Amino acid sequence: PVRNQTKCxxxxxxxxxxxxxxxxxxxxxxxxxxxxxxxxxxxSRISLAQIMDRDRALLRGHVILGFSRSGDHMISYQCELDGxxxxxxxxxxxxxxxxxxxxxxxxxxxxxRGELLVRELHLLVCQTLDExxxxxxxCRKLWADDRRPCYVTVFPSPLQALSDHTTPAxxxxxxxxxxxxxxxxxxxxxxxxxxxxxxxxxxxxxxxFLSYRVSSGDATTPPNxxxxxxxxxxxxxxxxxxxxxxxxxxxxxxxxxxxxxxxLADITRESEKPGVSVALSQSSLDVELWLSGALQSELELxxxxxxxxTDYDLQLVEVCAExxxxxxxxxxxxxxSGHSPSISESYSIEITGSWNAHSGHARALRVSxxxxxxxxxxxxxxxxxxxxxxLALALRREWHVPPSPQHTIRAxxxxxxxxxxxxxxxxxxxxxxxxxxxxxxxxxSHSAD
Length: 449
Description:
Blueprint: H1 2-15, H2 17-27, H3 31-40, E1 44-47, E2 62-67, E3 73-81, E4 88-98, E5 101-110, E6 122-127, E7 133-139, E8 148-156, H4 158-163, E9 172-180, H5 189-192, E10 198-202, E11 206-216, E12 255-259, E13 262-263, E14 270-273, E15 276-286, H6 287-301, E16 305-320, E17 325-337, E18 345-356, E19 362-367, E20 371-372, H7 375-378, H8 388-399, E21 410-413, H9 415-419, E22 425-427, E23 433-436, E24 444-445
Parallel strand pairs: 1-23, 2-24
Antiparallel strand pairs: 2-3, 3-4, 4-5, 6-7, 6-21, 7-8, 8-9, 9-12, 10-11, 11-15, 12-13, 14-15, 16-17, 17-18, 18-19, 18-20, 22-23
Helix pairs in contact: 1-3, 2-3
């Protein structure tokens, strides 16, 4: 009885910890009660071996990423190597998590279909804000200096598939690829996935906006053979058919849609199948083309003659989900002449711009003054010149409003695979529980929120 009373008292303290913190902040009282409540919330440490699946499949090449947003599942991925072709095959896995039962494998999704991968990828696995989709981005780090291939896979939420009792053969997935150009801007989930059902990509020389709507019902029959032979062509909605000079069809990405293991019809904008609906649309901003026009008019106002672009660094700053506005920052190196038209000199200039992904309209919000570029900087390495990254970070911090946990995108990285240093434990998103990796043979774990 005494033990039960103690347990009950601890539970009450845990429930009242918010009110205790409130009183502590306003009246500077309740310190002892708050300390006792915090003690009862000390995470329980359990070994991964205690909840290992019965078949111990988790030990066969799986890398554990962490817990899903709900905490009901653990997420892992597997990279299988074909010995004859040296091809890497990636798959994502969900495991039902229960403290009192072994892990149960409930879902598997194939990543980056149709791609020949001969190197390991740096992965970023993201749950969207509304938990309707999983977005997985994989990039090669060691590649040619002028580009880095990046691969993207989009799955509808496994939770929906589990609730609908949908089998892997009935699941929909989107797969596409893009080349990342110097200075190789990072994929930032909090910006790129800010708008539900959309992905915003910074490829280094363009901004790409891809809108998708994927739904699958009780599909029981596979797509017919004719639907898998159509060549993919994107017919953009009417706002994107305008004669705007900032749109470039060359920046639109071919997207492969799979139903289970079979490619669906390469689609124009919408494809309807029994129990399956897929709709896509894209728009893009050719930043170099837009810069040429913007700089021409801006430099004329300053009394300079614009000659050519030497280099530029493009970074995302902010995204407005309600209006579809994408704020970006570009630091440009250019050749221009002043009072003496025959003498061209190197300058740098910062431009903060806004692009509406729905209308395609782009405009400059703020333009700095021209700054002379030192000769040594002008001769520097193209891939290492990235001054806009720190400037964009400063702007984001200036405009930052701390979001609640419900409005934070949950993302995981496998970066520790390449550093060789695994985390010692995994923290549950809301329960006071830590899953401890006892030995290196148990699993490798990575988590980045």
